[in-house]
Amino acid sequence: MKLYRFLSADDTSAFCHKVTEALNKGWALHGSPTYAYDAANGVMRCGQAVVKEAEGTYSPDAKLGEQ
Description:
Elements: E1 2-10, H1 13-24, E2 28-38, E3 43-53
Antiparallel strand pairs: 1-3, 2-3
């Protein structure tokens, strides 16, 4: 099955670490990163989609971050 996640966080090194951790767990970048101003919190936010092939059948109960 193909898994999809969208990672997002404030524009800090923590976001880069989140993406790096996913890549090291076998996830691959999917598309371009996003960058937008979060007016409600007054910060810039980053986002990146990642995908991964995994064995099994998809279920909405799947814990994607643990894959």
